[in-house]
Design goal:
The structure is a homodimer. Chain A is α+β, with helices and mostly antiparallel strands. Chain A has two domains: about 140 residues, Jelly Rolls (Sandwich), CATH 2.60.120.10; about 90 residues, Arc Repressor Mutant, subunit A (Orthogonal Bundle), CATH 1.10.10.10. Chain A is built from nine helices and eleven strands. In chain A, the strands form three sheets. A four-stranded antiparallel beta sheet of chain A has the order 2-6-4-5. In chain A, strand 8 and strand 9 form a beta hairpin. The longest helix of chain A is centred in the middle third of the chain and has 27 residues. Chain A is globular, with a radius of gyration of 18 Å. In chain A, about 50% of the residues are buried. Chain A binds a DNA duplex (30 and 30 nucleotides) through helix 8.
DNA sequence: CGTACTATTGAGTCCGTTCAAACGGGGTGG
DNA sequence: CCACCCCGTTTGAACGGACTCAATAGTACG
């Protein structure tokens, strides 16, 4: 596994840092809570691109915090088709829901070379026992995933291919901004057109055509692993995108 | 509101009972925990068909437990299209995620005449403070919703219309069985073909054609508010349906 | 320097749509 | 009591967005 990683140096604590960035957009996290979080998160380990991080159905006793790279939740169909139901960015837990569910309904796979930190469920249980506010923040984090699922459901059900692709590009722009990994111009997106197709319920051939449309309309460009946003407002309008479902405001929980 | 309800008698405590059925499929609930749950759930109130129970974006301080009828989470698009992202059956919380998120990203609407019980967020916070195991069970309940969202995402992305419809009919059969509202023959489904279309990302016209297909293939019939399952195995095979994502096994959380 | 994966483009097909019309049942008001 | 209307359902015909099949480049890697 991980014969040759793009970045051979293990990022030391950036995983927790990005998680904290994500949580602090939504609520205050005290110094004590930060300390507790840091204490339960194991050192990052390298994951090779395309490997299965967590297999569907296996009993689990830990959850994965993504430190670097991108993970996807994938469902494979009998006929070889595949649907990705969420793309994870650094600072996300890829399978925090397994803390209550104890196994996954879908695989978690590495979309490129990644670093992840494991967090034992026993430690999470202790958090819910002794740090109820922090526990609610972790609960919140799984509810954000669910909100993203709902947004994708709406996209798949009611948006045509260009709007669907534009919506995904907008979502990633905002989510990566929260953890400091996007600027106004765009962001690194280490996916193939096949991956995008598997997120969007389309074929790779059609994703290619739709990418060309967005490019020719001066909205966005995706080339060699980088998304360049040329006209965010236009992209947003095309996708009927709103940040509401990402809950970027701070309220006491 | 609620000028004339199909059942004028308020169901007294069946809401909690169905919630307990649902939770006890997944984990043990102690007598004390049951008592705590009963104590925080308000008496049922009637909700008229088609009314908006919770509006997107409004600050919330309580969540709705569905006692009778069916609720849907709906997203309306600019052009008048609508996508339903989840259908709720009795025993479900329709918006328990608002406990951590404090507002909704989508409306909750009554698909027919309903009874719901409100649960104050203050009481839920007390549960997470003093009954951590019960708190984890409520967290579990929102994670089940997320698993259902993912299954719908897969349906919308990768199944054709007949398989998609069959999958929804299978899912409701199982979820209603858990709360004692379905038998092997089928179940009451108080939705219109328009509602089904809004769940499935299809048009009502096409839902009608696909329903005819399922009927002519001897798989299932939907008429006058009732689904009759003629061949569950066939339906299941067509939909590539598995109960895995509904987490029907009991494990300690 | 072959091999495999990714991206790109064209041509033809099909599933689900749009547009349109008709039917049926239940409630309402003249 | 009947006429009317509304809503949900049903069916037909034509359209179109996304797919399939196919072929070609480009690129990374062993």
């Amino acid at each position: 596994m991980a014969a040759r990683m793009s970045d051979p140096l293990a990022p030391q604590s950036v995983g927790v840092d990005k998680l904290l960035l994500k949580l602090r957009v939504r609520d205050d996290v005290s110094a004590l809570e930060e300390e507790v979080l840091r204490s339960i998160i194991e050192p990052p380990v390298a994951i090779a691109s395309r490997s299965v991080v967590v297999k569907e159905g296996i009993p689990l006793e830990r959850s994965a915090l993504l430190v670097q790279g991108m993970l996807g939740r994938c469902k494979d169909m009998r006929d070889g088709q595949r649907q990705i139901t969420e793309v994870h960015v650094p600072g996300d837990f890829a399978d925090l829901h397994s803390f209550t569910l104890k196994r996954l309904d879908q695989d978690v796979v590495a979309l490129n070379d990644c670093w992840i930190s494991w967090v034992p469920h026993a430690a999470l249980r202790a958090v819910t026992d002794t740090q109820p506010h922090l526990g609610r923040l972790l609960w919140l984090s799984t509810n954000l995933d669910a909100a993203i699922h709902r947004a994708w459901t709406v996209s798949l059900g009611r948006r045509d291919a260009p709007a669907r692709l534009a919506h995904l590009l907008c979502e990633l722009q905002v989510r990566l901004s929260v953890v400091g990994m996007a600027d106004e111009d765009g962001y690194a997106l280490p996916l193939t057109q096949v991956d995008l197709a598997e997120c969007l319920g389309l074929t790779a051939v059609h994703v290619n055509r739709v990418l060309r449309q967005l490019r020719e309309q001066g909205l966005a460009t995706f080339r060699s692993g980088r998304v360049t946003i040329e006209d965010f407002k236009g992209l947003r309008r095309l996708a009927e995108f709103s940040t509401d479902y990402l809950f970027l405001d701070k309220r006491p929980r």
